[in-house]
């Protein structure tokens, strides 16, 4: 066992190098917050935050929102905005807040955070909140929006901690929940409440390790099976060679379960769980489930074709930061539960797979009437031996650029009658991606920024009849249409989007929804030539010298830096620049990272410039510019006070004949160029003067240095009298005769008076 643990990191590293399923998911179009190209409707309230629990009415006209200390009823039937219809305040008292603080909890976590909001019946809504770490539940009349009955204790129905994830669903007036039953979060439960008549509330057996530190994600009801499936992640005790190895699970309970008669009284007799394995062959698994949503089967297909799409991340360092989406078929889940089961050794608490006599079928409905021996068998054999593998044998998509946290899924029928699956994926950075699943892989049609500040809790709610999607964040609720067809203004753009919601209406020349017949659309190929009956020559033809478009005029001054923007048709397109009958030399033109072209305006760079784009084999022109020189204003008559200098008058007189000589031809541009001859002469004269002065200084310095080497140094030469000069000019004999003069000279040369001892 120890050697296996030492080899595990090496195996993980080797498998990480073999991971080849990662693909680049580049959204074709991106919309920032508040962009006019993507219409968003926002609702927020200053006194209500954490609006993350969403419940949509059956007619899709009212959205119920559970927030902090309040439940809201929002009118979403209006296209122009979201209106607050009713508000129910439900907050803890000062005493409750004080008791919460005494438990050692932060005051910011003590308000009442609504975590369960479900329709109980046609007239009432069932809501549960954390209520200062003492969960409570109430019945809300949906018509009057008031609390009808006495509040229920929320233990086992709602988490204590507002950050603890939970799941709940109501089937036939009974509440099925997956949560924790203590404020420390150490007692996980899957239970049933609100049972009436002969039916009793049920929960898991407390003595068995049926759940190992789970994080509940979602739950769904399958009517044809009479079962409720819970999705969560937990510590996989069967992998004892890895400490706290997280696995994703799916578990089931039957709605007809009423517990055993002697064994498993008031306990589940139909509980079973299996592993969800989001993994490609030969690669590391994405083992941590983040969110999951169900996709009902298409019309005239069996319920076994129900798909569950989930977001998975990995706890392995080589896959850290990656997000994967896997889909699982209901038929494969049923097959795992109908197979063999692992055996738990009560002494060592280790799971094993061994052949044993099968007394009962774990997970089978109707075991409440089984014998005690059969119930003891299902009590100890609840972990399926087989794992549920993804449909298609590999993840649907894997993204290295975006970390997804929530999703919702929808099936859309395109113009050609083919059904496509569309995923709405919410990233942790605040963008909502719309991705269509194609045979060649996932294609991200667009991304829309829905919040700027990272949100700790988020939720998605899809309204298929209205074509809307709601995003619940800590700051408010946002609404946006699932389709954005009006953004695409040409047939080419509409087809290249490959959006199954949109098609090109040739009669009205607009990109519209699929309500109109005979729409141009190619979701899988994006073939513009095939889907569009006619494409204008301005988008298709290559421009020559005789068919240049007028383009956008851009007057510039000579020697001015010009920057021509090139709006990208999409993030999947390739842009480049062309100039008719000329090559864009890299010495003169600079291609910027944003696709713009920059250059200095000269007579050689004036003219037409074309920005072209190619995507999916279709070539089009997205911008045409005509760069020309600004026309100089005609000189007016000088005023009475004007007194131009001689140089100005001379330049005008000499330039006038030259300008008139070229007025009818292209050389006019060169003639109108302002002259810099005077400046050149002035700079040249200054340069000559500076060089002359420098040369004179150097000559003077050399001369002085030469003289210092040839002439003896004498102190106070100008102060000497005539006798001193005669002594210097006389010979030795004369010097001896005139000794008193030499002594005076020596005294003077030493700086002292004669006959003064030194």
From TrEMBL:
Superkingdom of this protein's organism: Eukaryota
Gene3D superfamilies according to UniProt: ligand-binding face of the semaphorins, domain 2, YVTN repeat-like/Quinoprotein amine dehydrogenase
Extent of Basic and acidic residues compositional bias: 715-737
Residue ranges constituting the Sema domain according to the UniProt record: 28-482
A GO cellular component annotation in the UniProt record: plasma membrane
Stretches the record annotates as Disordered: 710-758
Keyword Flavoprotein found: no
Any one GO biological process: neural crest cell migration
Record's protein name: Sema domain-containing protein
């Amino acid at each position: 066992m120890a050697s296996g643990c030492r080899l595990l990191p090496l195996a993980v590293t080797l498998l990480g190098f073999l991971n080849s399923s990662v693909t680049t998911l580049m959204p074709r179009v991106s919309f920032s917050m508040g962009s006019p190209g993507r219409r968003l409707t926002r609702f927020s309230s200053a006194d209500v935050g954490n609006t993350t629990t969403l419940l949509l009415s059956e007619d899709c006209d009212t959205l119920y929102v559970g927030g902090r200390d309040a439940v809201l009823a929002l009118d979403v039937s209006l296209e122009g905005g979201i209106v607050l219809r009713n508000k129910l305040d439900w907050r803890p008292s000062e005493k409750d807040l004080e008791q919460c603080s005494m438990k050692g909890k932060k005051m910011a976590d003590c308000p009442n955070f609504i975590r369960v909001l479900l329709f109980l019946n046609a007239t009432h809504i069932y809501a549960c909140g954390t209520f200062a770490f003492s969960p409570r539940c109430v019945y809300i009349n949906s018509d009057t929006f008031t609390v009808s009955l006495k509040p229920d204790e929320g233990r086992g129905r709602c988490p204590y901690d507002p950050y603890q994830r939970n799941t709940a669903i109501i089937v036939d007036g009974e509440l099925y929940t997956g949560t924790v039953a203590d404020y420390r979060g150490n007692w996980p439960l899957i239970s049933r409440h609100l049972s009436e008549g002969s039916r009793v509330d049920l929960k898991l057996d407390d003595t068995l390790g049926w759940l190992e530190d789970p994080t509940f994600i979602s739950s769904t009801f399958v009517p044809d099976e009479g079962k409720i499936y819970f999705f969560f992640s937990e510590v996989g005790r069967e992998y004892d060679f890895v400490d706290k190895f997280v696995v994703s699970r799916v578990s089931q309970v039957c709605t007809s379960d009423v517990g055993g008669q002697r064994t498993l009284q008031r306990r589940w007799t139909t509980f079973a769980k299996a592993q969800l394995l989001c993994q490609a062959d030969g690669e590391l698994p994405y083992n941590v489930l983040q969110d999951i949503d169900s996709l009902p089967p298409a019309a005239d297909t069996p319920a076994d074709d129900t798909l569950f799409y989930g977001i998975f991340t990995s706890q392995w360092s080589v896959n850290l930061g990656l997000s994967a989406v896997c889909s699982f078929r209901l038929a494969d889940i049923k097959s795992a539960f109908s197979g063999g089961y692992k055996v738990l050794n009560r002494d060592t608490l280790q799971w094993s797979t061994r052949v044993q006599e099968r007394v009962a079928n774990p997970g089978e409905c109707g075991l409440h009437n089984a014998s005690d021996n059969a119930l003891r068998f299902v009590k100890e054999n609840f972990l399926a031996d087989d794992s549920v593998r993804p449909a298609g044998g590999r993840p649907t998509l894997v993204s290295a650029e975006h970390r997804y946290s929530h999703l919702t899924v929808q099936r859309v029928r395109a113009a050609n009658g083919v059904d496509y699956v569309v995923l709405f994926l919410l990233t942790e950075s605040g963008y909502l991606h719309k991705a269509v699943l194609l045979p060649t892989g996932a294609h991200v049609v667009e991304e829309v920024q829905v919040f700027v500040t990272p949100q700790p809790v988020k939720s998605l709610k899809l309204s298929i009849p209205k074509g809307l999607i709601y995003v619940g964040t800590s700051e408010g609720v946002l609404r946006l249409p699932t389709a954005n067809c009006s953004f695409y203004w040409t047939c080419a753009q509409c087809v290249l989007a490959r959006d199954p919601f949109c098609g090109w209406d040739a009669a009205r020349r607009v990109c519209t929804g699929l309500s109109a017949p005979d729409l141009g659309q190619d979701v899988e190929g994006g073939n513009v030539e095939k889907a569009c009956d006619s494409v204008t020559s301005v988008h298709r033809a290559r421009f020559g010298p005789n068919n240049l478009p007028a383009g956008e005029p851009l007057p510039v001054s000579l020697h001015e830096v010009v920057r021509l923007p090139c709006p990208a048709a999409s993030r999947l397109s390739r842009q480049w620049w062309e100039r008719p009958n000329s090559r864009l030399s890299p010495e003169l033109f600079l291609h910027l990272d944003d696709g713009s072209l920059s250059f200095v305006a000269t007579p050689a760079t004036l003219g037409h410039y074309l920005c072209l784009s190619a995507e999916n084999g279709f070539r089009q022109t997205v911008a045409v510019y005509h760069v020309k020189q600004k026309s100089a204003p005609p000189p007016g008559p000088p005023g009475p006070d004007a007194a131009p200098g001689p140089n100005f008058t001379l330049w005008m007189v000499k330039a006038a004949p030259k300008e008139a000589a070229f007025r009818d031809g292209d050389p006019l541009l060169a003639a109108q160029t302002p002259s810099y001859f005077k400046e050149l002469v002035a700079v040249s004269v200054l340069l000559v003067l500076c060089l002359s002065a420098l040369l004179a200084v150097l000559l003077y310095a050399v001369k002085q240095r030469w003289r210092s080497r040839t002439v003896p140094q004498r102190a106070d030469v100008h102060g000497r009298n005539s006798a001193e000069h005669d002594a210097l000019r006389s010979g030795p004999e004369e010097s001896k005769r005139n000794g008193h003069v030499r002594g005076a000279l020596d005294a003077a040369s030493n700086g002292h008076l004669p006959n003064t001892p030194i």
